[in-house]
Amino acid sequence: MNFLNKMYHGLPMQLQNFAITMYGFYWKNRRLGATFKREVLKFKERESFTHLEWENYQEKELRKLLINAFKNVPFYHDKYSKAGFSLEDFTNFKLSDLPNLPYLEKEDLRKFGTTTLLSKEKEKEKGKFLFSSGSTGTPVSIYFSKKTHQKWFAAYEARVLNWAGVSAETPRGMIGGRKVIGDTKSKPPYFRINKAEQQTYFSAYHINNKTVANYAKGIIDNKVEYMVGYAMSNYYLAKLFLEHKINIPKLKAVITSSEKLTDSMRKILEKVYGCKTFDTYSGMEACGLVSQNRFGDFLFSPDTGVLELVDKQGNAVENGKEGEVLLTGLLNFDQPLIRYRIGDRATKNINQNTVSELNMPSILEINGRIEDCVFTKDGREINRFHSLFLEIKGLMLGQIIQEEIENFRINLVVENTYAKSSENIIKSRLENQIGDNIEVKFIYLKDVPKNKNGKFRAVINNITNG
C-alpha cells in the first residue's frame, strides 16, 4: 500500500486523475454491482415497518447471526461456550436476551479481527480487509465480502443519499481522509477527479485563505450537486467561502459525517450552499447507521444492526439519558461484531414519535464525536489524523496532542511486535499533513487517559485548551 501511494504521488496530475478514475471503476463495481439495486429496494420496503415488524425482523436476523457465529467463528464459539451458552440457546434467542451476552471490545477486534474473529475459511465469502482507526485512535481491520459491501452501500443509498434527495449517480464533491494531493507545498488544483463516479475529491489538508478560490473552482467547473464527507472540513470550507464572499451555485444537499455537526455549523453550511444539511453516523465497522431525513428526524436503521445504550453497569438507559453505544451488526456474517463497544456515546429522544412517522429509533444526539483541531503555520485547521496510525504493526492506540504551533506530543500504547522505528513513519506522515520543521515527542503509555465521560479523544489542542 505504501509503495502504491508513493507511486501515485509521483505521477503528474492528469495521470493521478486517470489512476483515481480506474480505481473508481473498480470501487463502483464492488459496491454498486450485483445485488446492490435489489438490496436498495428491500431497505426502502422496510421503512414502512411497524414497531412489531421491526422487532420480529431483528430477532430473526439476530438468531441467524448468532447461530453462524457460534458454529463458524472460533472467537465466539470459545467465548460463548465458556459463558455457558449452547447452540440451542441461539436457535430460540430473543432480542431481550441480548444483554446476557458478553461485550466485544475494540481490543478484541484489533487483536483477532484477521484471525479467529473471522468465519472458518470454507464458510467465509471471498473479500478484503479495509483499515481504519476512525476517531478512536485504535487501528482496526474490517473484512468485507462484495455481498456485505453492497448491502451496506444499499443502506447508505436508501437511508442517506435518497433521504437527502440525491443518489450514487449524482455528481458529488467529497472531503475525506484519502490524501489525493501530495504534501503541504503542493500547487493547485486541490482536488482530483474520479470520472467513474462523477466525484470531485477535495483535499481535507489544504483548506485555507489562499486556496479557497481553487476549491470553489472545483465545485463550479465539475458541476458538483452535493457535498459529502467530514463535518468539520466541510464547515471550514463553507466558512471561508462566506468570509471571502465567494458565491457557490445552490446545491441539492450537504451530507456530513465523522464529527459532530453543531447548529452553528449547520447554519453556515445551509447559508453558503442554499440547501439542507444532513448529518450521519456510522463507521468503517458497518454495524449500525444513523441518518437524517428531510423532516429532520435523526434515525437509527434497525436493519443494519441492533443498537443498545447502556450505563457503566451495563444496564439499558432510559430515553433522554446518555449511554454507551453497543452495536450488533446484522449485515456482516464473515466478521460478526456482536455487542461491540464502538467507543461512542449517544442519547435517544424521550419522545420516540417521529415527524416522518417512521418507526425507527429516534436519536437526540451522538456524543463523543468532537475532536480538537490542529493549527498550522499557514492558517489551516485540521482535525483528522487517523492516517498517522494506519497499518503500524503492534500499535494499539495513538493520540496526537498539539502543545504549540510546531510542537507535538504523540501518545502511543503498543505491544511487543511494535518497532520503535515506526516513529519515523508517524512523524513523516504528520509532516506531510501539516508541514516540515516540527518537533514531535513520542510518549509510550500503558493506557491513554479518558475524559470525564469516559471518552478517549484522538486529537487534543493544548493551545486552545490551555
Instruction: Show unreliable segments.
Output: none
Which range best describes the helical content: under 10%, 10-25%, 25-40%, 40-55%, 55-70% or over 70%?
Answer: 25-40%
CATH superfamily of the largest domain: ANL, N-terminal domain
Number of helices: 13
What is the count of distinct domains?
Answer: 3
Broad structural category: alpha/beta
Order of strands, widest sheet: 4-5-3-6-7-8-9-10
Kindly provide the radius of gyration, computed on alpha-carbon positions and rounded to a whole number of angstroms.
22 Å
- How far the N terminus sits from the C terminus, by CA atoms, comes to 38 Å
Largest sheet: 8 strands, mixed
CATH class identity of the largest domain:
Alpha Beta
Mean pLDDT: 91
At CATH level 3, the topology of the largest domain is: Rossmann fold
Return the CATH architecture of the largest domain: 3-Layer(aba) Sandwich
Multimeric state of these chains? single chain
Question: What tags apply to this protein structure?
Answer:
32% helix, globular, Rossmann fold, single chain, 13 helices, 4-stranded antiparallel β-sheet, 466 residues, GMP Synthetase, Chain A, domain 3, 3 domains, 20 strands, alpha/beta, 8-stranded mixed β-sheet
